């Protein structure tokens, strides 16, 4: 047991009790020591995605939980309506990039912490950027962003039996190689409700495995908006989605797209909605309500964000140090009617397109890259269009930018077998568009390609993939 | 919106201007500003609480820099209360922040009247004996009290006040008040005026389902001795009759009617929960009764007389497929009835006020209106005193938790990804934490430090803590129940550490309860919330 000198005051006075002392209800590889604490402090790098309500809390919580090397990424600027909960920002900061101000404030108050801010979109970063971190903590507010990061983290996953670096016999068990597991902790809040979950790709369900947890967004039928409005929201969405475009086509707005952050655009929608409401005798159209409907404003308060971020931080600490048991694996919280917290243990979807071993595709050695891409489009599970394909980091074909497209265009007519270095089977990654809830969304998929008649690989049933 | 309010936009959408006004009028006292207290208060300050007073007698130490965001390098050696309150002031300059450099225990002993000036007291990191004393003081002075504590990876939150009544409980899922099973005259007449067999297909599919169901229910009742469908077969038959009226597959209004037909089958009248409130002895009002109970007394009369067994009509209707004109007409019919019910209630309230010797205008119209709208959703929360709970907890409940009989708190989700089989032992750790958090206080009373507080002593402390826990259990009447050894070890390992993440979580929960208590909206938690940071199976214990 480590001896903390009674005379030497230490900043990590409280954390030390958790990290330096052996325990019974701990992770299997817990090694209590000053070394552990120092390793976390000096070597563990955590990425916080989002510097808003959850992000601010996450940065503070992580910094005060022994993590001194943090990065934070957020593409937004500070707005006045953030100030009721994003406590790292002040009135004077309105307009400045969230990531930069958040990083600065935390570093000012907690000495020894280093936070690198990234004022950009998560898509703007190379995939390798994300691989540099030990753990990724998500403080996001959209399904799409979560999906993206989930895709990225799961793409690092390699299995012992199908590793890009080894030519090994395929095994139907497909256990993930531990060092390729990129842990994520994901938090989300809305009013008094929230969730915190631990995602260990290949072990726990990933975001995609449980995508059915998110109900599709409410959309009003067009005929209701156009013919039989009944509520204030109908009038507002009419002005926002229908009337605006009519007027745009008449060039009254100079052909501009509706911008919810433009106060003049918003006022226009409000006025039109109010006119329509009056026409139909419908009460309830106010400016505030209009903003809420158009921007899909989610009410938010400091307390829920604090709770969820703290839960995420606790799990991050446990993943990094094994100082206690980890949450298994999805916590839901609801504080509106009493207090309800529950931990559910979801299981992976074995056929998950993202964290699964990868959809199995069997082709002839003669199949060209172009033909292969056509197959992806037709494949019932993938339905992937506009594919960009990489193999072991090498670009086989890129849809964009134009320079890369030109460079890789000639590969389209070459056999995939040759492009993949004549391996009998290997993993490739495909970026493209697919359908989800009747919307076209971008996606990243892992595919296991095997070539018929090479190295004794017999015909396998590829229907249904994995 | 006035300038200062824009920053509160995202929370105004939850509790509205009235809720915000209540927050801005209130004054809060925080006892002990370690991270648990500081984080609780931070969330409230951000939300615009009126005034805060931070009470803490300690000075900032180097160790505090590692767990408390609200203290910084420059404040080492200075009053922690002063440092925390000045940072909080920075967070929101419309909040009035004060501090008192005193140990809470001292104030509790020597100056109990100090607490009477506050709306609410947040007491963090207090031990058993102080909790009991403070609870007595606050109950006497009618000050809301909430306890919060972090201890290693564990903690708890407990509200304490005699009674908290809620009109605007705003439950997430609550059945609308359409009275399809009990339509009043005007609604019936409106339904009568509409012909379901109209030829025009557009008109046919734009008749609102409320009308369809009122008419169909009426038809059914006429041929069934005045009764509505009650057996499974009858309900199915009723739905089939609806289906038979559809002239094409795309008639959303009929689909909605079929889906909503359960509203016709539902029993009339009020819920058991509301009945319980009406039967409460507090509904026999006198001059000391609160406005809430006066309103309940009026409600009781209303239901027994003009209401015919029903509460005042809520008045709003959900959106439904309909022509605009019919929808608006329907809406107006419901609004008119709600208004009529309100006027009756208003008279009842005024006459009751007069009867008990109060000014008949002393309850504002707006309050009565809100009460009418929310009559079916009223909530009354009562909390046992700390002393009562600590000395005589609800034994059957405690036994249940200790033996983990009730595994209803387990994982029960269904979905595409399969569920792991529900594990038992859901209360096991939580109740262990509850007992041990009290045992560590007894330990501290005996040995002047918490178990494991100092590295050197950890090994000896384990058996000492164990015997403190056993003797506590025995005092409570639970002889022979063993607490998990592992958990006892963990509590010693924690050594009363205040970890930031745990403090932030517990503080977050406490701050949210404070908001609900002060805005009097939504429903505060009941019982004691035990935070279990080991496997996150936190629980509410009702002792």
TrEMBL record, chain A:
Q: Does the keyword Cell inner membrane apply?
A: no
Provide the E.C. number(s) assigned to this enzyme: 6.2.1.64
Q: In which pathway does it act?
A: Protein modification; protein neddylation
Name the enzyme's class.
ligase
Q: What GO terms in the biological process aspect are recorded for it?
A: protein neddylation
GO terms for molecular function, please? Answer: ATP binding; NEDD8 activating enzyme activity
Which CDD domains does the protein's record reference?
Uba3_RUB (cd01488)
What's any one GO cellular component for it?
Answer: cytoplasm
Keyword Nucleotide-binding recorded = yes
Q: Which residues form the E2 binding domain?
A: 361-452
Per UniProt, the keywords (alphabetical) are: ATP-binding, Ligase, Nucleotide-binding, Ubl conjugation pathway
Residues forming the catalytic site? 223 (glycyl thioester intermediate)
Name the reaction it catalyses: ATP + [NEDD8 protein] + [E1 NEDD8-activating enzyme]-L-cysteine = AMP + diphosphate + [E1 NEDD8-activating enzyme]-S-[NEDD8 protein]-yl-L-cysteine
Q: Which Pfam families match?
A: E2_bind (PF08825), ThiF (PF00899)
Q: Which domain of life is it from?
A: Eukaryota
Please give the family membership noted in the entry. Answer: Belongs to the ubiquitin-activating E1 family. UBA3 subfamily.
Summary of the function given for this chain in its UniProt record: Catalytic subunit of the dimeric E1 enzyme, which activates NEDD8.
Query: What's this protein's name?
Result: NEDD8-activating enzyme E1 catalytic subunit
The species this protein belongs to is: Arachis hypogaea (Peanut)
């Amino acid at each position: 047991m480590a001896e903390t000198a009674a005379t030497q005051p230490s900043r990590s006075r409280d954390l030390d009790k958790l990290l330096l002392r052996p325990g019974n209800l701990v992770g299997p590889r817990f090694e209590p020591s000053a070394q552990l604490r120092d390793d976390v402090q000096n070597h563990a790098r955590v990425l916080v995605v989002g510097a808003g309500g959850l992000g601010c809390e996450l940065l503070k919580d992580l910094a005060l939980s022994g993590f001194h090397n943090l990065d934070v990424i957020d593409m937004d600027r500070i707005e006045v309506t953030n100030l009721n909960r994003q406590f790292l920002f002040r009135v004077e900061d309105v307009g400045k990039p969230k990531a930069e101000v958040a990083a600065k404030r935390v570093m000012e108050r907690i000495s020894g912490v280093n936070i690198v801010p990234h004022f950009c979109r998560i898509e703007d970063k190379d995939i390798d950027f994300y691989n540099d971190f030990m753990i990724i903590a998500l403080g996001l507010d959209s399904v799409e962003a979560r999906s993206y990061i989930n895709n990225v983290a799961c793409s690092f996953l390699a299995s012992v039996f199908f590793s890009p670096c080894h030519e090994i016999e395929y095994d139907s068990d497909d256990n993930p190689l531990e060092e390729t597991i990129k842990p994520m902790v994901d938090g989300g809040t809305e009013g008094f409700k929230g969730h915190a979950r631990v995602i260990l790709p290949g072990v726990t369900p990933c975001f995609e495995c449980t995508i059915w947890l998110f109900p599709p967004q409410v959309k009003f039928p067009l005929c209701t908006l156009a013919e039989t409005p009944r509520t204030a929201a109908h009038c507002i969405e009419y002005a926002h989605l229908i009337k605006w475009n009519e007027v745009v086509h008449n060039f009254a707005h100079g052909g501009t797209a509706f911008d919810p952050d433009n106060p003049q655009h918003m006022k226009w929608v409000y006025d039109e909605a109010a006119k329509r409401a009056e026409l139909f005798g419908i009460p309830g159209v106010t400016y505030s309500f209009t903003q809420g409907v158009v921007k899909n404003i989610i009410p938010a308060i400091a307390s829920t964000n604090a709770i969820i971020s703290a839960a995420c931080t606790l799990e991050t600490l446990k993943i990094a140090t094994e100082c206690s048991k980890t949450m298994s694996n999805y916590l839901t919280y609801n504080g509106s009617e009493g207090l309800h917290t529950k931990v559910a243990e979801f299981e992976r979807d074995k056929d998950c397109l993202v964290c699964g071993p990868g959809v199995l595709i069997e082709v002839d050695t003669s199949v060209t890259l172009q033909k292969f891409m056509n197959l992806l489009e037709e494949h019932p599970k993938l339905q992937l269009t506009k594919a960009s394909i990489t193999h072991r980091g090498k670009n086989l074909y890129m849809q964009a930018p134009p320079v890369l497209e030109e460079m890789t265009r000639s590969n389209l007519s070459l056999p995939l077998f040759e492009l993949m270095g004549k391996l009998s089977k290997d993993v490739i990654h495909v970026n493209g568009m697919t359908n989800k809830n009747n919307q076209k969304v971008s996606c990243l998929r892992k595919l296991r390609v095997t070539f018929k008649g090479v190295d004794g690989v017999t015909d396998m049933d590829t229907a249904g993939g994995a | 919106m006035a300038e200062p309010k824009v920053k509160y936009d995202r929370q105004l959408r939850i509790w509205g201007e009235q809720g915000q006004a209540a927050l801005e009028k209130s004054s809060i006292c925080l006892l002990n500003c370690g991270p648990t207290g500081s984080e609780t208060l931070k969330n409230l300050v951000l939300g615009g609480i009126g005034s805060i007073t931070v009470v803490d007698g300690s000075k900032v130490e180097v160790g505090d820099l590692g767990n408390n965001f609200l203290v910084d390098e420059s404040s080492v050696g200075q009053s922690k209360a002063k440092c925390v309150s000045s940072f909080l002031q920075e967070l929101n300059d419309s909040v009035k922040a004060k501090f008192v450099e005193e140990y809470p225990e001292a104030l509790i002993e020597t100056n109990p009247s100090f607490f009477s000036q506050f709306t609410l007291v947040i007491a963090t990191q207090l031990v058993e004996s102080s909790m009991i004393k403070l609870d007595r003081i606050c109950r006497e002075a009618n000050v809301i009290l909430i306890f919060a504590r972090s201890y290693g990876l564990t903690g708890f939150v407990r509200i304490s006040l005699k009674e908290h009544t809620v009109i605007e409980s705003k439950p997430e899922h609550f059945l609308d008040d359409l009275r399809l099973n009990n339509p009043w005259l005007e609604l019936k007449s409106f339904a009568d005026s509409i012909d379901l067999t109209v030829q025009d297909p557009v008109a046919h599919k734009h008749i609102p389902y409320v009308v369809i169901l009122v008419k169909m229910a009426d038809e059914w009742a006429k041929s069934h001795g005045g009764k509505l469908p009650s057996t499974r077969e009858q309900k199915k038959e009723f739905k089939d009759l609806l289906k038979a009226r559809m002239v094409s597959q795309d008639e959303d209004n009929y689909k909605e009617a079929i889906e909503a037909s359960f509203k016709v089958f539902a029993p009339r009248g009020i819920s058991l929960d509301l009945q319980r409130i009406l039967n409460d002895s507090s509904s026999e009002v006198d001059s000391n009764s609160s406005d809430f109970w006066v309103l309940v007394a009026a409600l009781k009369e209303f239901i027994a007389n003009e209401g015919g067994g029903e509460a005042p009509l809520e008045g709003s209707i959900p959106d439904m497929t309909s022509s605009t004109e019919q929808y608006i007409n329907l809406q107006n019919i419901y609004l008119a009835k709600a208004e009529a019910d309100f006027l009756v209630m208003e008279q009842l309230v005024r006459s009751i006020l007069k009867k008990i010797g109060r000014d008949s205008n002393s309850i504002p119209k707006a309050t009565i209106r809100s009460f009418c709208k929310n009559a079916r959703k009223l909530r009354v929360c009562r909390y046992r005193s700390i002393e009562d709970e600590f000395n005589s907890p609800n034994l059957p409940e405690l036994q249940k938790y200790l033996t983990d009989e009730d595994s209803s708190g387990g994982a029960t989700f269904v979905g595409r990804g399969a569920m792991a089989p529900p594990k038992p032992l859901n209360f096991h750790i939580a109740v262990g934490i509850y007992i041990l958090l009290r045992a560590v206080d007894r330990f501290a009373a005996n040995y002047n430090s918490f178990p494991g507080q100092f590295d050197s002593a950890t090994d000896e402390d384990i058996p000492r803590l164990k015997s403190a826990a056993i003797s506590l259990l025995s005092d409570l009447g639970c002889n022979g129940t063993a607490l998990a050894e592992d958990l006892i070890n963990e509590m010693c390992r924690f050594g009363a550490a205040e970890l930031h993440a745990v403090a932030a979580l517990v503080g977050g929960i406490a701050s949210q309860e404070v908001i609900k208590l002060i805005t009097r909206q939504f429903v505060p938690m009941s019982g004691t919330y035990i935070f279990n940071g080991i496997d996150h199976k936190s629980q509410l214990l009702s002792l």
